[in-house]
Amino acid sequence: MSVVGQCIASFIFGTVAGLLVQRSRFCNTAALRDAILFKTYRNTKALLVAMMILTVGFTVFISVGQGHPMYFDVGLNTFAGLFLFGIGMVLAGACTVSTWVKTGEGNIGALWALLFTFVGMFLFSLVWSADYGPPPPASMTGHPDLASLQLGFANAATLQKTFGIPAVVFGLVQAAVLFAIYRAILRRERRVAQPARAEAASALAPLVKAAE
Amino acid sequence: MEFFKKTLDPVIALIAIAVLDVFLFMVVGAWTVGGGETMMTGLIAKGILGHGIERLPFWRLVYVPSFLYWKIYISLGMFTGALIGAVLSKEFYIRYPRRVSEWAMITVGGLLMGIGIRLSFVCNVSTFFGLTPEMNLGGYLAVSGILAGAWFGSMIYKKVLGI
């Protein structure tokens, strides 16, 4: 596909995703924060369902060598960076998606978060230019390099190559794990809802009797 | 239209997004935002600093500012889609945080997000909607990182809000 075609496809995808996220009030930050702080799982469940579909979808195509998986080395910087990101998104009350979506709704706070994300990226580009770490894509090897805290590259495709089992098998296992988490959340919700319902029922009982 | 009156169930919205994301994965790559934002940072910096930006190796070796980068258009699309959705459902209005403490938290939060994305080479979207479903090792590292960070951030949030 031509470069312009890629941009157009991305724009169409982004527009539909933005519309759906706006209409459903989905928020990735809320999916994690609400589960931790308030023990409510509205967004968490949606996130898990999407991840199950994506895991099976991606690994089916990876099995037959199709699709465009991301290719770059990962390492401890992946963990550390997302740790900082996790703190940042809770403080800002928005993640990368919801900053764009909330800006589209006229939220100046979200626009402000977005501007400072850009500032943060530029600041990091200054730091990177001083010590060239983590390694730039051109000098990535795909192999672990413990001296620079890099673990190399591994995904469903490399699993398929190493074990000779189609990637989708591993994908189904991962989807099953995600489903188990999803079920655990449903059970937890039911456990919390039951006493509340019993309480409501006992409060209503005299009224029902009176009406009868 | 009913679609613009009621709040959509997030599970339904995310199923639709997931199916579209598989299509995008076939065409260019999985849904991601951080890379596009970095490219925008580069374009803005180039607009302000001109050729001076070429003195910074990051903008020569990792991201060479260019408008023809598909990830930029995902972000612009999300903004457009949300704007359409908000206007058609009459939910668009200018709102801003009232308290200074909120502005401070958003500023620090934004900076941490920007630094975090660049340090790790991934954002939260590629973590949950790209790397982990591709079963990339980085996905698991990133999920553990973001969960630990969100927990730590929630504790700060609790302290600040006093709940």
Which chain pair has the greatest contact? A-B, 119 and 124 residues
Structural class of chain B: mainly alpha
Number of strands of chain A: 2
Instruction: Please give the largest β-sheet of chain A.
Output: 2 strands, antiparallel
Estimate the helix proportion of chain B, in percent: 55-70%
How would you describe the overall organization of this protein?
- The complex is a heterodimer of chains A (212) and B (163).
- With 212 residues, chain A is an all-alpha fold.
- Chain A is built from 8 helices and 2 strands; from the N terminus they run αααβαααβαα.
- In chain A, strands 1-2 form a two-stranded antiparallel ribbon.
- Chain A is globular and about 80 Å long.
- The relative contact order of chain A is 0.12.
- Chain B is mostly helical and 163 residues long.
- Chain B has helices at 10-27, 34-49, 58-61, 70-88, 100-120, 124-131, 137-161.
- Chain B starts with 9 loop residues before the first helix and ends with a helix.
- Chains A and B meet through α1, α2, α3, β1 and α4 of A and α1, α2, α3, α4 and α5 of B.
Question: How would you summarize this macromolecular structure in one to three sentences?
Answer:
The complex is a heterodimer of chains A (212) and B (163). Helices cover 74% and strands 2% of the residues of chain A. Chain A has helices at 3-24, 28-37, 42-63, 76-92, 96-104, 108-131, 156-163, 167-211; strands at residues 74-75, 150-152.
